[in-house]
From TrEMBL:
It is an enzyme of class 3 (hydrolase). It comes from Congregibacter variabilis. Belongs to the Maf family. YhdE subfamily. Its cofactor is a divalent metal cation. It catalyses: dTTP + H2O = dTMP + diphosphate + H(+); UTP + H2O = UMP + diphosphate + H(+). It is found in: Cytoplasm. Nucleoside triphosphate pyrophosphatase that hydrolyzes dTTP and UTP. May have a dual role in cell division arrest and in preventing the incorporation of modified nucleotides into cellular nucleic acids. InterPro entries: ITPase-like_fam (IPR029001), Maf-like (IPR003697). This is dTTP/UTP pyrophosphatase. Its EC number is 3.6.1.9. The active site is at 72 (proton acceptor). The keyword Cell membrane does not apply. Keywords: Cytoplasm, Hydrolase, Nucleotide metabolism.
Length: 198
């Protein structure tokens, strides 16, 4: 391990996860994990996100004694994961399916230090209001739907689509803060003592 690595490493390319982790007041470095994110045949969504979070940790195992935090999030409708849209047509289809319905958002968070590893799975239920074709068109004209599971960002304009939410809002954004803080505390890292990114 390089001597200048901080105690905590966020293994994610998501700026949203980095922003959320920064809210805990911890110093950390960001290092993205490059893995194959193809779902396995008949793999359940909750199993998929747990496997992804843990495989991201596996891919960054050479960081030595640093405490590594990885995560993966998926939007689930009718037991089917809605990943990141490949194009506008797919994004439109996702939003049409989510309209006037409830769906689940799962995030798995893995903390690993040496041979010690712990993974938590968090579920949030989100209910969308009806989305008219004009509203979907307007949303697709923004930058928000891209690179987002389910083709929406609850922390942005799509927050106005949400009629009801049961569970963690930060989980829907990509990193459940309560569970992440508790998970890091299990490894001796207490939130709020240090600030800023490395």
């Amino acid at each position: 391990m390089e001597s200048n690595l901080p105690a905590l490493v966020l293994g994610s390319a998501s700026p949203r996860r980095a922003d959320l982790l920064a809210q805990l007041g911890l110093k950390f470095q960001v290092t993205a994990a490059d893995i194959d994110e193809t779902p396995q045949l008949d793999e359940a969504p909750r199993s998929y996100v747990q496997r992804m979070a843990e495989e991201k940790a596996d891919a960054l195992a050479d960081l030595g004694s640093s405490l590594l935090l990885t995560a993966d999030t998926t939007v689930v409708l009718d037991e089917v994961s809605l990943g990141k849209p490949q194009d506008a047509a797919q994004a439109r289809q996702m939003l049409e399916r989510l309209s006037d319905r409830s769906h689940e958002v799962y995030t798995a968070v893995c903390a690993r230090q040496g041979l010690c590893s712990e993974t938590v799975l968090v579920r949030t239920l989100v209910e969308f209001a009806p989305l008219t074709p004009a509203l979907i068109d307007a949303y697709l004209s923004t930058d928000e739907p891209w690179d987002k599971a389910g083709a929406y960002a609850i922390q942005g304009l799509a927050g106005s689509f949400v009629r009801r939410i049961d569970g963690s809002v930060s989980n829907v954004i990509g990193l459940p803060l309560v569970e992440t803080r508790e998970l890091l505390a299990d490894f001796g890292l207490v939130a709020g003592l240090r600030g800023g990114r490395a």
